[in-house]
Amino acid sequence: MKVIKHSGQIVPFDIEKLKLSLQKSGAAPDLIKESLAQIQKQMYEGITTKQIYKMAFAILKKASNGHAARYNLRAALQMLGPAGFFFEKFIAQLYAAEDFKTKTNLILPGKCVSHEVDVILKKDNIISMIECKFHSSREASSDVKVPMYILSRFNDLKVKKHTLFSNNETITSCIIVTNNRFTKDAENFANCSGISLLSWDYPKNNNIKNKIDKGVLYPITCLTTLSMVEKEKLLILDQILVKDLITDPQSLSKIGLSENRVRNVLKEASQICKLI
């Protein structure tokens, strides 16, 4: 059976890929088996992957909000837009969980011009700059022009001394992060130029998805018990991660949720953080 991807490409249906995505949601084997059976009954030639996703999401949500939330993870990253400001803060949180010191949204002078830097990292006396390329469309990729452009900015900044975490510090490495994917040419150019890349699925064993699961760093946008408006209010309050709501539930009251709603959100948050 053929299915239509987000990009419009027509490909054979891959049941193993669907099964793997259901497993990553934390669903039990019996639920996965039942979900696959239900979805296959409703499938037809030319169905879109978006429709398959909606069916799977609905089945998981009926069983557990926590499963549905984790299944919704990639879409949740897209909700950290539209400008990507909150995505930059989220990326800083990923690295902070790995014992990096972080700063966000800095204007730094280069040799020739000043540059806006999304995130600055420090660990073991190594200073890195991060450029975040946020895409609101799932089909969009960061092509080779992205690392080519950012390399020129990095070269302009690394020859200057900066006051970052202390005085007279030098930026010695560069990382480009996207919520989607890089093209193969972008990967090749970055590797050749000494630039590190991080995307949804790159590098293979230390990508955004891996970092989220390893550190239990799920964004609040994956929660199914909150509306988008409520999520935006929490983001404005700097509540970026689901686990932060567990330690600071008062923020839910601050955005106007009733006690019953607060309990439901915290229940889902606990489910997400325990489904590792």
Rounded radius of gyration (Å)? 20 Å
Q: Which CATH-level-2 architecture of the largest domain?
A: 3-Layer(aba) Sandwich
Count of β-strands: 10
Major sheet details: 5 strands, mixed
The SSE order reads EEHHEHHHHEEEEHEEHEHHHHH
Q: On the 0-100 scale, what is the average pLDDT?
A: 93
- Give the helix tally: 13
Strand order of the largest sheet: 4-5-6-8-10
Total tally of structural domains: 3
State the share of residues found in helices, binned by percent: 40-55%
Low-confidence stretches: none
Decide which structural class fits the backbone: alpha/beta
Describe this structure in words.
The protein is α/β, with parallel strands linked by helices. The chain has 3 domains: 2-63, no CATH class; 85-214, Trna Endonuclease, Chain: A, domain 1, CATH 3.40.1350; 219-274, Orthogonal Bundle (DNA polymerase, domain 1), CATH 1.10.150. The chain is 48% helix and 18% strand. It has 13 helices and 10 strands. The chain has helices at residues 15-24, 29-42, 49-63, 65-71, 73-78, 85-96, 145-158, 184-193, 208-215, 228-236, 242-247, 250-254, 259-274; strands spanning 2-4, 10-12, 47-48, 101-109, 114-123, 126-133, 141-142, 171-178, 181-182, 196-198. The strands form 3 sheets. It has a 5-stranded mixed sheet, sandwiched between helices. The protein has a 3-stranded mixed sheet with strand order 2-1-3. Strand 4 (101-109) and strand 5 (114-123) form a beta hairpin. Helix 1 packs across helix 2 (29-42), helix 2 (29-42) packs across helix 3 and helix 4 crosses helix 13. The protein starts with a strand and ends with a helix. The mean pLDDT is 93.
